[in-house]
Amino acid sequence: MNRRRAYEDDGDFYGERNKKRRRVSENQEMEERLETLILRVGENSSSSLESNLEGLVSVLESDLGNFRSKILRILSDCPIKMPEKCTIYSTMVGLMNAKNYNFGGEFVEYMVKTFKDSLKQCQWDAARYALRFLADLVNCHVISTNSLLQLLDSMVDAANEDNVPQVRRDWYVFAVLSTLPWVGRELYEKKESALENLLVRIEVFLNKRTKKHHNALRVWSVDAPHPQEEYLDCLWAQIRKLRQDNWTEKHIPRPYLAFDSVLCEALQHNIPVIHPPPHQDSFEYPMPWVVYRMFDYTDCPPGPILPGAHSIERFLIEEHLHSIIEMHRWERKDCAIHLLLLPYKDKIPLEYCIVEVIFAELFHMPTPRYLEICYGSILIELCKQQPSKMPQVLAQATEILFMRIDSMNTSCFDRFVNWFSYHLSNFQFRWSWDDWDSCLLLENEHPRPKFIQEVLLKCLRFSYHDRFKEMMPEGYAKLIPKPPMPHYKYSMEGAGK
């Protein structure tokens, strides 16, 4: 009897354990399903984005009881890791707040904690994207305009601190300015005077700011034909242009406008008072840079017009392209595909924007963000993905760089040589060398013939000498490197002494 009872008890034990295991696996499957639905919202679908958002909000609301913390974490991570979908997730949170005010309050607290933690951990991009998302929640009637303005003012206060590095102050102003395109219109309509006061404080800061680093970060020593603006000065000019246009732009998708009748009735939450963490010697801040310009609208063929250098659309496009490169740089094919699938690609000369941004990364001073070969491999993949347009745009960019090489920074000169030789090696070393015949009249040490000489020297490592003798026009013979010959010191004259 005792054995039988023990056996029955063991059977109950294993039965309960199997039930728990099934329950855990079911919960995991449900969590993975929710995460997939949230991550993929806004991607290619047969139904409209609005209907997708409504359906997903209904699913999330029904699952809040069991997966509340999971939903909070995913919804706060997505706009930081996928900033291009910021307005989609703010719309989702807005719809959920309209149905469940308590959840909206919990999410705002969670997002504020994420923002503060990012500042403490020096995750500056994550902090900037979190600030942008909080600002966009104002458009969805989740957060009040007064509390957002209070947060922006506290960040400008941090920019005016004494005895802290300038890069810290610069970042706080940059974070505020880069957030205004998303929420500027809403603040302009409801709190115009407070917005103007904020802009006046920023202008005072920019006028006092020193820019000793500017000359060291320039790609060219002259400003013709495109001035090389310091990044905060350029963004400030773009924000002023946006203010002149009454804070209206044409690049940010705003799906919450379709739900305005629902969102406007929702109760709003206030952001608690946030004091940026004080500076510590261990903190590392983003370094300044110079905005790289290669093309303007006259360089592009008939069709979509390239936005002006001081239009906010130019800033938004470039920021989106930089973030794609950062996210997909490990896989060149995925990176090229995502670059070519940029939203609103039919409204801009996309190929010119992509090439300009990639060369901006390559020529970034003092060093590029990633390995030089990373950018070369992405450009090669772009040519393969779009052979009808990209090679022509890249050839035009190479021509522009060669014509301006006289005033190019020495470090950028070397990177240009490395990229061009690597690119030629992947396209059978084909190039219209006859177009550069004018450089043959110059001294060999002039930047233009020197560039060709250095390129051929690098290309020699990818091929053999006779090929270049046959490939290059006769006039370029003096620029072709000498044939590599073995150097055996024991056969030389006087080796036996």
TrEMBL record:
<protein>
    <recommendedName>
        <fullName>Nuclear cap-binding protein subunit 1</fullName>
    </recommendedName>
</protein>
<keyword id="KW-0506">mRNA capping</keyword>
<dbReference type="GO" id="GO:0006406">
    <property type="term" value="P:mRNA export from nucleus"/>
</dbReference>
<dbReference type="Pfam" id="PF09088">
    <property type="entry name" value="MIF4G_like"/>
</dbReference>
<dbReference type="InterPro" id="IPR015172">
    <property type="entry name" value="MIF4G-like_typ-1"/>
</dbReference>
<keyword id="KW-0507">mRNA processing</keyword>
<dbReference type="GO" id="GO:0005846">
    <property type="term" value="C:nuclear cap binding complex"/>
</dbReference>
<dbReference type="InterPro" id="IPR016024">
    <property type="entry name" value="ARM-type_fold"/>
</dbReference>
<dbReference type="GO" id="GO:0000339">
    <property type="term" value="F:RNA cap binding"/>
</dbReference>
<keyword id="KW-0539">Nucleus</keyword>
<comment type="function">
    <text>Component of the cap-binding complex (CBC), which binds cotranscriptionally to the 5'-cap of pre-mRNAs and is involved in various processes such as pre-mRNA splicing and RNA-mediated gene silencing (RNAi). The CBC complex is involved in miRNA-mediated RNA interference and is required for primary microRNAs (miRNAs) processing. Also involved in innate immunity via the short interfering RNAs (siRNAs) processing machinery by restricting the viral RNA production.</text>
</comment>
<dbReference type="GO" id="GO:0000184">
    <property type="term" value="P:nuclear-transcribed mRNA catabolic process, nonsense-mediated decay"/>
</dbReference>
<dbReference type="GO" id="GO:0006370">
    <property type="term" value="P:7-methylguanosine mRNA capping"/>
</dbReference>
<comment type="subunit">
    <text>Component of the nuclear cap-binding complex (CBC), a heterodimer composed of Cbp80 and Cbp20 that interacts with m7GpppG-capped RNA.</text>
</comment>
<dbReference type="Pfam" id="PF02854">
    <property type="entry name" value="MIF4G"/>
</dbReference>
<dbReference type="InterPro" id="IPR003890">
    <property type="entry name" value="MIF4G-like_typ-3"/>
</dbReference>
<dbReference type="GO" id="GO:0031053">
    <property type="term" value="P:primary miRNA processing"/>
</dbReference>
<keyword id="KW-0943">RNA-mediated gene silencing</keyword>
<dbReference type="GO" id="GO:0008380">
    <property type="term" value="P:RNA splicing"/>
</dbReference>
<dbReference type="InterPro" id="IPR027159">
    <property type="entry name" value="CBP80"/>
</dbReference>
<feature type="domain" description="MIF4G">
    <location>
        <begin position="31"/>
        <end position="243"/>
    </location>
</feature>
<keyword id="KW-0508">mRNA splicing</keyword>
<dbReference type="GO" id="GO:0003729">
    <property type="term" value="F:mRNA binding"/>
</dbReference>
<dbReference type="GO" id="GO:0005634">
    <property type="term" value="C:nucleus"/>
</dbReference>
<comment type="similarity">
    <text>Belongs to the NCBP1 family.</text>
</comment>
